[in-house]
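Bench notes, bay 3.
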Amino acid sequence: MPFSLQFNYPIFSTSCSHQLKLHNSIRNQPFKFLCTSPQSEEAAKDSSGYEKENGNGHVILVEKYRNGTSKRYIIDNDSEIKMFLEEHVPATTGSQHLEIPVTELSWLPKVIKDFVLPAGFPDTVTDDYLDYMLLQFPTNVTGWICHTLVTSSLLKAVGVGSFSGTSAAASAAASAAAIRWVSKDGIGAVGRFFIGGRFGNLFDDDPKQWRLYADFIGSAGSIFDLCTPLYPSYFLPLASLGNLAKAVARGLKDPSFRVIQNHFAIAGNLGDVAAKEEVWEVAAELVGLALGILALDTPGISKSYPTLALTWLSVRILHLWFRYQSLSVLQFNTINLKRARILVNSHVLHCTVPGIDECNRMESILLWQRFLRPRIIFEVSLEDMLDRGKYKSMIKQLLNLYKEEKYFLVVNQQKPRDFEVFVSFKEGATSLSVLRSVWQTYWLYQNWGWSDNIFDRLEQSLVELKHRFPDLLQQLIEAGWDTNNLSLKVPKEMSIEELPAL
């Protein structure tokens, strides 16, 4: 059965001219949320038939979510706004605008699909991707079976049991040792499995950051290995934790470095670049192994655990410093969110943009996006946007304000001391829409406070955006930035479809 929640909020009567003003006349109109239970088809029909029963109302926008849920906002001539929540959108609806396309592998649960397939599949990969991965899976399974068998042979070769001349107990002990050793590797593989499935869509945006984080996590894993002589009875759990941490680090390192390699291969020679990188890495490995062996031959290190641990710590810190320096010299000409913030802020304040070298030096490798200011929160429901401010019922004004943009942007009024904006994207939004929203955010951030009228500020920021954004693009092109391949992804968990007014 359908159920409804009714809240009474004031709706302001407005008139829009070149400068958007708020009238003092206030009319108390109810703001309704009508939710339907997905367990009843009749309830769904009742909700979808609301417009037919109320001829003076019409849908103004639809929020669509990847899990199939949708929210429809309906407004009538009395400025009464109702929101219908449908947890499972029917296959056929009364309007073609509400149809959600069926993707490939619809039989596969969404959680699994998001975990094992790239974001946006199948549109973001080639047609042969799935066939290749389905054949790669049994290929890797057979490879690891061989690895397990070979590991058992290696352990027997170094004295842990043998194929002949030993008792059944000794053979069983040798097999148990091999199983424990392989189990250690298996626990580590779980880390790579989790990283690849959960965070696979992050590496393209900020490979520098994730490559550095990989070394920090790998260092933590080495600490567990270093503690095994102190607690030999806990060798398996310590070694497993160490392997887990290092596997997580590898899960971060490999995809991040592939992005970096792709950055190097400007002539389409990715294979050659990867092969030569392997030469450099093997040469460094041989030198490092030689120096490590010399260090182990030193009596002070080989006979003193504290000296060994201190030496490891000193070399590891040096390793992390070199890693940071190597990432700092990278000069990406693509624009991700961090670099977009630097470029946009410079353009808003000084009407200029830094060059590729300067901007990459200014980019913070360690800092997370959530700690950057001003804070930008993407994919916020229109309902949450409006409930957080004093203009909860000004939906029509918001729609009119952003009718020429592919997104909605409002400032969070609940945190006056901590500037924060909410952004949601309409259907058809592109990476350029993300860049436009970032520019508007920084203009508001730098000019906040010149007016007490919130909509005056938003409208003025859009006027500035319209006049100054073309200059930003022109300066980016002249500075050598790749504006045709922006690394600014439009969030896909939610999109807003704006319907034409009747």
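Next record in the batch:
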Amino acid sequence: MENFVENKTMPNENNKKISFTGKVLIGASGLVAVGISVVCFPFISPAFRRFTLPFIPATDKQLRNILSVLPKNPVKNNRLLDIGSGDGRIVIQAAKHGFKSDGVELNYWLVLYSRLASLRSGTSKNTKFFRKDLWKYPLDSYNYCVIFGVEEMMIKLEEKFDKELKKGSTVIACRFPLPNKSPTRVLSDGDVDTVWIYDYK
């Protein structure tokens, strides 16, 4: 009779242990899933907007073309804005060339990365990175605007430039031109590194 009672209670104890372990595993899996969602959301959320500006790092050639457009000795208080600044390379390089440079970027992690990169490069005093919607960000204080756009958004961007840029400003468009404006000049080898320069006089 004693053996029967012992055998009868042992499975219940094992079930309790398995049940507790299962709850721990389920809870841990849930936390991992939430963590992945939090990290991935800033990269996925732009896809739900009307215009998506994907993060594609500038090539070294594109960066050289952009820097060649900028004056070697910029006027004091000349300011540059990189629209959709990504990893912050353009903003940081412009700051090294004497510009007060800002970047506007929707992705929180890229903004954070850019701020850390500017600290490491010693340009943090001349750079700022804002997590903002580019369509709501004012442009009237900038002398130079750099944009790596997508074809679908260039018409709307051109309208924004026309409304907000002050006279004497310059737009540097990469990958796609402004559809209704004639560029002042073009830096091109007939490839994806083409840069269109527009002077707003």
